[in-house]
User: What shape does this take?
Amino acid sequence: MLNQLQRRLDALAAQDALPLLFAPKRGVEREALRIEPQGTMALTPHPKALGASLTNEFITTDFAENLMEFITPVTDSVDELMASLTDIHVYTFKHLGQERLWPLSMPCYIKDPKQIPLADFGQSNIGRMKRVYREGLKNRYGPVMQLIAGVHYNFSLPEGFWQHWPDGDQSSAYMGLLRNYRRLVWVLPYLFGASPALCGSFLCGQKHHLAFEKSASGSLYMPYATSLRLSDLGYTSSAQAGLRIDHNSIEGYIRDLRQVIAQPSEEFAKIGVKVDGEYRQLNSNLLQIENELYAPIRPKRVTERGEKPTEALARGGVQYIEVRALDVDPFSPTGVDINTVRFMDIFLLGCLLLDAEPLDNTQWNENLKNFQATVLEGRKPGLMLTQKGQAISMDDWFAELMPVWQRIAEGLDAQQGGHGYQNSLKEQQAKIADPTLTPSARILVALKSHTSGKLGVTLAEAHREALLGRAYERWSEAFFDAETERSLKAQAELEASDSESFDDFLADYFSDLSQGVA
Assistant: This one.
């Protein structure tokens, strides 16, 4: 692996391209459920003081009205990223009253799933479409699963970098990154998984195959699990279990995803689409829209108004990638810490620079097996994975990867100054050598004396106090106030500008499905 990496680095160095390689851009999306002080989910509407969730650039909602999402701008500075994320949290807490943010990926105690309020994006056609999409998710998978929170990491390289890439094909390079990510994604739940346990209310009586144990405090857990959020029990879909979206080219990816969106589902047809004048889902196909594809990574391009994600990819190719396999860090007030961010840069650059063989069904199944093993038993002593058909211990695989990561960390530090990346890597090395240092192990230790509810409340209160005591680092109160006012005005303008009925809007949006997708 190190020889592969060095050849690529030498070729880029000959073109003076290393400063561009080691200046990646990234952004973070962090989800968090609003809760009452005692730990139950908040049932209040999204605070108007935080603007319109449809149009606010920094503070929005996800599935539910009480499931917040914080979005940072894209930046090439890790310090600026963390300052932005912190400021967004500080402003939010100043307008939440006594409410807190649940600090765990798996949701708090849910007494009645019917109480979960779907996100309300107003009366514009696009706002109504977002709500109907969520109505479909609720009817297809149940509302509790949709309250699982995570951290999404958006990553890209400067546009000027790609003229130095061997064939200059940006999309092809990013698709290679995706293939290597699929091979190595097991690394992330081991290092950052923080959901080895859950509240029994999450199961809602559903059947499962997992061998849970019960802690003295009453939480359900698996002794070696790292991320139940990423397991079959968490944010996944049995209806999508057999999907194999092509990762070998962007053209194949677009083709396969469009075919899945157009594929009728007998199971979802039973729900109905519009019943007694009310929409239950956008359509009865296997996926309502592209966003319903539950994948640990996605190729992305910023969409124009009214444009579908696959249309954006077909128009301009891959602009960035979205990593979706990070749990919320329960020990960080902002849900992700700076060393995680730095390691993600190291990890993703490694996925880009290493040779990326095509993915076939055999390799796909091997990758999935390794991922599931690490999610459910990642801290099990002597855990064996499979590498190109051969058994390999997790420890040995980490040993192969470490020199690659070390070389990349040195390059990033040389470009950006200091030793932050190498220090981050040392922190990950410590977790590899001692599994008790992983977030999942730390959570299980804490659950010996707390229920998941009490632990969540304790951490939530500590994070609230820490953030309320922080000064703004990048922006100001006035900056966010202005964004609040702008977002409310923008939503009102959208609602006033709609000239077609919602039925016609949906018919236009999905017209390519009715005509067949090429």
User: Anything to note?
Assistant: The CA atoms of residues 300 and 320 lie 5 Å apart. The chain is about 45% helix and 10% strand. The mean pLDDT is 94. The two ends are 39 Å apart (CA to CA).
